[in-house]
Write a structure and sequence with these properties.
With 506 residues, the protein is mainly alpha-helical. 74% of the residues lie in helices and 1% in strands.
Length: 506
């Protein structure tokens, strides 16, 4: 009951006119920033952090603005992912797998509307979880040490094998390609240059935005030019812009399962929405894809990652507020906002600054309602982007992509590298290789390496530390089962078919 009372007090803070205006403004601007490839929630929040401080906003108002921008970016990332096959950030990569095929079938409005509702459900479940279980879940998150995190990352990699149904080897190979790209640069532990081939431009490694824009935006531009040359230009739109009752009913359990899964992963510091969306999608594919429609335009394939990444985004506030440990890169920026106001996050924050904490939690409820109210009526407008001729759309995507990449380091080398990766991504598409696992492998590699180093440092190089705790053992077992079971089932099915053929021959 104390939490409910505190939440009501938080709503009194959140519904103040200034905070409502800031929440509305943050949601709208965040959505716009999210749909622009390369910006994403981290950059969106980072842009508004100095603005919030310069305006001399109270701490609770500043956090409400930043949280609204964060949630808006998570919503906005799906728009370009579905319509253009260009994810706004890493957490929207999995949305492209089924979202863009739906758009190609003329059901862009259905994909956008189901993703908006899925995002709302995921964020709502996660925010309710924050209210009810924040202290308890923060203690559970502490049980994850470096060894458990490494096992979790291995489990995430193992789940990627299910992304392509009958072609898990291609998905895993793509993941390993992404990991290899992540190894380029200076080794953080030894200072040794790795895979730079003597180029100073590669000493800092390849920037994430260069990988994303290259593999998705540039390769998509090349594909669109190919379609234009072949006489395929604008995509036809169906008259229906919203999902129907049957599509909502088929996705309802998917949303709930993925929301709980995303919330659980979001609590873990550093895991992030990218890991949550990948695990949720691959899990849902194994549970629900009885007809082999995932990857070809299934609304459940949009609902799963969208519910999970928004649930994870909200869940990442728990370690930030209760432990003072950022649950994601974006909450790390928000942690900086707290320090600017001389507020120390931790278990005592709920008692020392209840107006800040509960005002922020209440604003998450309000922001998600605002985002649904904003986004659903705009589905038709967003869908019209697909009717723009490629002669106009291709230069626009190219301009945004080049500006976004050049704006990081003002380096022409990054532009050249982006184009090279784009051509590589285009070739992979022609070979029927997925580009999503490459991005996910790139993101997971850094987390895996960092936690492996920490675990081995703690144990003085003893590899057994990776298999000591019950939690890490359980994750290793699940990862092994996910890889081994499909192979065993395939072998068993082949053996049964051979036996049937032999019996018929007799």
């Amino acid at each position: 009951m104390d939490n409910i009372t505190n939440l009501l007090g938080g709503f009194q803070v959140a519904i103040q006119p200034l905070n409502l205006v800031l929440a509305s403004f943050g949601c709208f601007v965040g959505t716009v920033l999210g749909l622009l490839p390369g910006l994403g929630p981290i950059n969106g929040v980072a842009i508004f952090l100095p603005l919030a401080f310069a305006l001399n906003l109270p701490p609770e108002s500043a956090l409400i603005l930043l949280a609204s921008v964060y949630m808006g970016c998570e919503y906005g990332g799906r728009i370009s992912a579905i319509l253009l096959n260009v994810p706004g950030d890493a957490s929207a990569v999995m949305t492209t797998v089924d979202g863009h095929p739906l758009a190609l079938k003329g059901r862009a409005g259905v994909a956008l509307s189901i993703s908006a509702v899925s995002s709302f459900v995921g964020a709502l479940v996660s925010t309710i979880g924050i209210v009810l279980f924040a202290p308890l879940l923060s203690n559970w998150a502490l049980s994850f040490g470096p060894a458990e995190y490494f096992a979790l990352m291995v489990f995430a990699v193992a789940t990627l094998g299910g992304m392509l149904g009958g072609k898990p080897a291609k998905a895993l190979l793509g993941c390993f390609i992404g990991m290899s790209l992540a190894m380029i640069g200076i080794d953080s532990g030894t200072g040794v240059y790795r895979l730079t081939f003597g180029s100073l431009h590669l000493s800092d490694g390849i920037q994430f935005i260069v990988i994303v824009i290259g593999l998705f935006a540039i390769s998509e531009i090349l594909t669109m030019l190919e379609q234009t040359q072949a006489g395929q230009n604008a995509i036809k739109l169906s008259g229906r812009l919203l999902f129907n009752a049957k599509e909502l009913a088929s996705s309802a359990m998917t949303m709930l399962r993925s929301a709980f899964m995303g919330f659980g992963i979001g609590i873990l510091p550093g895991a992030g929405a990218t890991v949550a969306s990948a695990i949720a999608y691959t899990t849902e594919k194994r549970v629900s894809d009885t007809e082999g429609t995932f990857g070809k335009g299934d609304v459940r394939g949009v609902a799963a990652p969208e519910a999970a990444n928004n649930a994870s985004a909200c869940g990442s506030f728990i370690p930030m507020l209760t432990l003072g440990v950022p649950g994601s890169g974006t909450t790390a920026v928000m942690l900086g906002a707290l320090t600017l106001y001389n507020i120390t996050p931790g278990p005592l924050l709920f008692e020392s600054k209840p107006d800040v904490v509960w005002g922020l939690i209440a604003s998450l409820f309000i922001a998600n309602v605002l985002l649904v109210v904003m986004n659903l009526p705009l589905v038709g407008l967003f869908s019209r982007l697909l009717s723009i001729p490629n002669a106009v759309l291709v230069p626009a995507i190219a301009a945004i992509s080049f500006i976004g990449v050049y704006g990081i380091h003002s380096s022409t080398f990054d532009l050249v590298l982006m184009v090279v990766l784009g051509v590589f991504g285009y070739i992979l598409r022609k070979l029927d290789f997925p580009t999503g696992p490459i991005i996910l492998g790139f993101v997971l590699a850094e987390l895996m390496e960092r936690n492996l180093r920490r675990a081995l440092s703690i144990s003085d190089g003893e590899i057994g530390v990776l298999f000591e705790s019950p939690l890490s053992i359980a994750l290793w077992v699940m990862a092994t089962l996910i890889i081994a079971l499909p192979i065993l089932l395939r072998l068993r099915g082949r053996r049964n078919r051979n036996q049937t053929v032999s019996a018929n021959d007799i």
